Amino acid sequence: VYPRRVTTFEQVIEDLGRVEPRDAMPDDYRATLIRQIAQHAHSEIIGMQPEGAWITRAPSLRRKAILLAKVQDEAGHGLYLYAAAETLGVDRADLLDALHTGRQKYSSIFNYPSLTWADVGTIGWLVDGAAIVNQVPLCRCSYGPYARAMVRICKEESFHQRQGFESLHALSHGTPEQHAMAQDALDRWWWPALMMFGPPDSASPNSERSTAWGIKRFSNDTLRQRFVDMTVPQAAVLGLRIPDDDLAWNEERGSWDFGEVDFAELAEVVAGRGPCNAERIAHKVRADAEGAWVREAADAYAASGGAR
Ligand code: ACO
């Protein structure tokens, strides 16, 4: 009989191993994960709204089918993530209550309106593109259930990003009116997309600890820069202009310099004062109330053991 090897939380983190639900973990680690995974899950669910609004107005059956599938994928991402959060000992109903009452956040990006069909392509290209840059490193995060959920989510996000790019490409190479619509959407979504990566490193209260715990693998500013570097050449293929006069290739750094992100705007949106915050939550609360009978029926059916 071999003695059971006792591995402490600190050793697992140091060895870049995985912490699993039944392992001992510091209370703050658990709380940080619940905060981040819940915020992430809420973002997926609230993120269904700006694009969902265009399902009935998609310009062709093909575009409608793709958009339906994409929005449905976002619901699936939310469900994996709520399930990952539940392994930490919280209840999904409590997390949803925290969202509905403003006690938990969701991504700032979904508080901007989707005004035209070009916004749908732009959201796929930029918002899902930013999500991939942020989330691929999370596939290696120290908490097993979160890391594993991210693997599948990232594969689907990658498809979402490509479909957005392809849709926007059709517009930007279409009629002058379609091109102008694509440019207008890029003008409105570019800066909010950069805000998705969070406050600058110098003003990010959670970064140091989350990095030490292997939840975050790269800083907010590092990922923001990675996103800019990835996206600038793509904008050139689309023939669209990124709305930043300070955008310039920096030979020395091998990266693009870019202008100042308006972090005061990010703070306002995160504080609940963005263009659509009230509308997004009101819609979510209404959908939750209208769906209550479905959950009650499912519970009753489960309690009956499947009997008729
Ligand atoms: N929108 C809303 N809130 C934000 C945003 C944002 N774009 N960026 C940062 N915040 C919040 C943080 O949640 C934190 O709030 P809290 O401490 O009150 O909970 C606060 O601002 C300070 O920021 P940081 O200290 O930098 O927070 P953190 O270390 O959690 O980093 C980040 C923020 C990068 C968003 C991180 O939580 C993360 O990687 N989350 C997982 C990815 C995610 O949630 N993506 C959602 C959008 S993608 C999609 O759904 C398609």
UniProtKB/TrEMBL annotation:
<dbReference type="InterPro" id="IPR009078">
    <property type="entry name" value="Ferritin-like_SF"/>
</dbReference>
<dbReference type="GO" id="GO:0005829">
    <property type="term" value="C:cytosol"/>
</dbReference>
<dbReference type="GO" id="GO:0010124">
    <property type="term" value="P:phenylacetate catabolic process"/>
</dbReference>
<dbReference type="InterPro" id="IPR011881">
    <property type="entry name" value="PaaA"/>
</dbReference>
<dbReference type="GO" id="GO:0097266">
    <property type="term" value="F:phenylacetyl-CoA 1,2-epoxidase activity"/>
</dbReference>
<dbReference type="InterPro" id="IPR052703">
    <property type="entry name" value="Aromatic_CoA_ox/epox"/>
</dbReference>
<dbReference type="Pfam" id="PF05138">
    <property type="entry name" value="PaaA_PaaC"/>
</dbReference>
<dbReference type="InterPro" id="IPR012347">
    <property type="entry name" value="Ferritin-like"/>
</dbReference>
<protein>
    <submittedName>
        <fullName>1,2-phenylacetyl-CoA epoxidase subunit A</fullName>
    </submittedName>
</protein>
<dbReference type="InterPro" id="IPR007814">
    <property type="entry name" value="PaaA_PaaC"/>
</dbReference>
